[in-house]
Amino acid sequence: MYTSTSRLLIPLVLTAVLSAACGSSGSSADDADPTSGDPSSPIASSSPSEGSTEAPETEGESLAGVKLTLMTHDSFAVSEGTLEAFTAETGHEVVLLQAGDAGELVNRSVLTAGNPEADVMFGVDNTFLSAALAGGVFEGRSETAVDAFGDALPDGIPLDPGGRVVPVDFGDVCLNYDRSWFADAGIEPPSELGDLADPALAGLTVVQDPSTSSPGLAFLMATVAEFGADGWETFWSDLVENDVMVTAGWEDAYYGAFTHGSGGEGDRPIVVSYASSPPAEVIFGDYDVPPEQAPTGVVADACFRQVEYAGVLAGTDHPEAAGQLVDFMLSDTFQSDVALNMFVFPARGDIELPREFVDYAEVIENPLVLSSEEIEANRSDWIDAWDEVMAG
Amino acid sequence: MTLIPGRRAPVAPVGAPSRPLLIGLTLLPLVAVGLGVVWPLGAMVERSIRLDGQLDLAVLSEVARSGAVRSAVWFSTWMAAVSAFATVVVALPAARVMALYRFRGDQIVGALGLVPFVLPTVVVGTAFWSLLGPSGPLASVAERLGVEGLDARRSVWAVLMAHVFFNHAVVVRTVSSLWRHLDPRLVDAARTLGAGPWARFRHVTWPFIAPAVAASAVLVFLFSFTSFGVVLVLGDRGMATVEVEIFRQLRQLDLGVASVLALVQLGAMTVVLGPWSRWAQRRSSASGRTSGDDHRRRPGSLSERWEVALNLLVMALLLGVPIASLVERSLRTADGWGLDHYRSLLDRGSSTAAVDPIAAIVESLRVATLATLITVVLGVAAARVISTSGRRWVRWFDLALMVPLGASAVTVGLGLLITFDEPPLDLRGSPYLVPFAQALVALPFVVRILVPVLAAVDDRVREAAAVLGAAPGRIWRSVELPLVGRALGVAAGFGFAISLGEFGAASVLARSGTPTLPVAIFRLLGRPGAANLGQAMALSTILVVVTAVAVLASGRLRGAVGSDGGGFGS
């Protein structure tokens, strides 16, 4: 089978590559008319039984709907049937493009601003939002679903007055601790951020490098918000004194160094993770009967709130359909689905939380927050300063 | 045009491709690398220094003045050199065993050797942690020696160990595929003339295998030079290769600095590789005396059996322990051992977060098959040019083909998004983009493996075929292909394994809804909970099995292709 390599396969492969190049060109090639859908349909009610048109079978022919590409991060997840409900309602199909974490999303979308890879982007959070807005990534909209649900959004969720993005969910980056480790050791777990510098808790904490990790960056911001511009560096040098361990990513911290997450192989019972990690531990844990409480606890006093946004990408061929998809993310259907799939809290406060969240998740009453303008102005400086503190 | 410079120059360029064919063979891989790597990288750099139509060189001076950049270049260079040296030293005895002896299960050992290559860094990193951490075996050995509380989890030693672990097979396979063609009569003759073991190695074996050793060393160097995940997970905080520095700049949304750093990395790589390629070109003239026979035999004497057994033991320890700990984790459940994690992988819930293992395997195999096909075609063309044309430009051609390994993968990935973004060449949605990118990463391997073997083919065999009236194409088919069939199989195996384990391109460029296995593993590891960890480990184990089976199967395929009957298929 190798016999004809030089003479035959070369043109073959070239043809294959080139024809692939020209043949399939993603969603932008769909030239279905976006206005023929049902642009005025309210997204508040997402009843799939409205009898709207079926999803189009063949590209280009359908007048009912278009194929929308949703660019999002690797952690994106919905129940089966959720996006189909959107299709049933509007006729638009949704294709997922999962493109790394929030930071990578912003880089890609800024690079391709104006000629986007997708129609809608979901998952840029408040630590990166200003950069994306400044990069001209999103298209402004005169009205969004926020107008309908504004009252249901809790305080502390910043909104974009230009209507370019809507908040979809939020998660709190918090210190987690291994309950049984502290019970066995007979030590009190930390109750506030400052406790980490307590010599009694020396050598027990693992955090992530803010220059390489998203929760690591959020935790750095938590310390900035807690101790202020003058105090946070002192706190970190105290942490160094107290033998804090730093990993590059969340995975190595949680599954490698954290005593509970690593199944006993790690040696750090305190880790930077999320407020929603304890319910995830129960849902993805080996329990025959639901436990009294989750195996890990959250230090509720030391949480930084990350809000995730969605918006229409500037330059999309289907702005109206894309706007419908963005607004769909604030509908009952989507909002009540996010908790158990992405382990975040729905942005709308009037959405009922699933039982696992009620039983095992701590609702953070007073999260630490910084404005996204302040974050944008200082992000690099904070990371550089942090690097210097850690170098000693 | 002579066949191989400085040697028994034949009267006519026997068996060499005709001129138009040569041009075609040269252009094909060059165009592929140019389109796939150089252009996107250039586009990123161009964007970063041209703001609003004005040339802005501030970013260049910023990078040039940065101490962090200088130390990253220095660290990348010395750490990669040490990694390459250490890997060669550790792997050479194993290469000898695999080259000289036939033994039961030798194919399985060879296939398993490639497994580290495909394992996700985080998975391997945490496996290393449990070995190097304060409660691991290393610390308890150190304690007995009087060193208390040793914690080598994040250290340059851990990085070097991991590089040896990942790259062991590169040296073993590249070197042994040439070494097994060394005619044992040459060694016997030296022995008869009174040469001791060292003198025999120094004067007979080494000159023969040196091109392959150099080739594999340079591959390990490049892999370590651009090392990213290993340094992030196992390196000390603040320890950074240029690639890590690029990643950190990208995290801070500084695309300009990141692009210029990618250029710096490529430049540094060229500076290091320049002298190497000159040496390698001179070196290739030293070989050229094999008829392509496989001279392996069963280990006879007691000392030979010991040699095989000891080497297998070392490989089992070095490669086997981290893999075994992975398999163990995949079987560990709340109440002992079991297949629970495998079962729950198959029994998916209704969330799109759940991973479909079968679909992921199919997608991985689809991508890897295409990538292997492309890389073998490009690699054979390139190796043919390099091994038959002695012209000066060939050295630069050779160097250019190494670029995909030295280029910053993440920067190239981003560059592809802005270069092929307009019809008719909007590649961003193409299902061939990922295999194409992976094929380019594997290309240097295919070239480096094939060139020493092709150069070692005895010209007299080619000449004889030409005298008998065979055209160049016929000579390639009937003479060279059977001789290099084994090396081609090795190269294809590498291409397949590289693609199976590749993460960057698969996650940045993929458009199909189905993730490949490494991407699926990464997604599972992104959420807390014992079941997610267990399923990630189970899926990693599946990746190990798929890799081993695929590599073994490519060996079988080779057996069917090799028409010599002389054991190439084994």
Describe the structure in your own words.
The complex is a heterodimer of chains A (392) and B (570). By secondary structure, chain A is of the alpha/beta class. Chain A is 37% helix and 16% strand. In chain A, strands 1, 2, 3, 4, 5, 6, 7, 8 and 9 form a 9-stranded mixed β-sheet that branches. In chain A, helix 7 (214-241) packs across helix 13. Chain A is globular. Helices cover 73% and strands 2% of the residues of chain B. In chain B, strand 5 (421-422) and strand 6 form a beta hairpin. In chain B, helix 3 (67-100) packs across helix 8. Chain B is globular, with a radius of gyration of 24 Å. Chain B starts with 18 loop residues before the first helix and ends in a 9-residue tail after the last helix. Chains A and B meet through helix 1, strand 2, helix 3, helix 8 and helix 9 of A and helix 1, helix 6, helix 12, strand 3 and helix 16 of B.
Largest sheet strand order of chain B? 1-2
Radius of gyration of chain B: 24 Å
Q: Which structural category fits the helices and strands of chain A? A: alpha/beta
What structural class is derived from the secondary structure elements of chain B?
mainly alpha
- Principal-axis shape of chain B equals globular
Share in β-strands of chain A: 15-25%
Assembly state: heterodimer
H/E series of chain B, N to C? HEEHHHHHHHHHHHHHEEHHHHEEHHHHHH
Radius of gyration of chain A: 23 Å
Low-confidence stretches of chain A: 1-63
Mean pLDDT of chain A: 83
Can you give the helix content of chain A as a percent range? 25-40%
Q: End-to-end span of chain A in angstroms?
A: 62 Å
